[in-house]
Amino acid sequence: MKKVISSLILMFISVLSFGQITVTQTQSPQQLVDNVLSGSGVIISNVTFNGSNPNAQTQQTMIGYFNNNGTGFPIQEGVVMATGDAILAVGPNSTGGSTNNNGVTNPDPSDPDLAAIGTANEQ
Fold it and tell me: Quick one: which H or E segment has residue 8?
């Protein structure tokens, strides 16, 4: 009986110590800028995403809203931007890297900044 109680206590403590943020991808980049990043009296115009104004008006998988849900994460809420799917920020992230590029808008392959960083084409 002691083992069962000890196991339950350990499971309960481990759940409490592993804080989770939530990430939603229901807003467009324009909506995230207007609703999350800007404050009272701030006027924002000409929002583009991936160099495109139409992209800023539609939901994108690599950007989303996050909330710490009262966990120990030091930032209460904000915007998550990723090179893959932003929902992966929820975790668990126990490996060196994780990505999911499903639905990601492909950038211009002739981008001079990316070309200056590297030329490897990984699949």
Answer: helix 2-17
Helix (H) or strand (E) holding 85: none
Q: Where are the beta strands (DSSP E) in 19-107?
A: 22-24, 63-67, 77-81
Q: DSSP E strands: which ranges in the chain? A: 22-24, 63-67, 77-81
Domain boundaries, the chain: 17-117
Rg (C-alpha) for the chain, rounded Å, is 19
Nearest-5° Cα angle at 66, 15 to 9: 5
Q: Which of 96, 92, 94, 81 is nearest to 19 (CA)?
A: 92
Give start and end residues of each alpha helix (H) in 18-119.
29-32, 53-56, 112-117
Q: What is the pTM of this model?
A: 0.61
Query: pLDDT tens, 27-70?
Result: 999 999 998 988 888 888 888 888 788 888 888 888 999 998 88
Phi, psi (rounded to 5 degrees) for 43? -110, 125
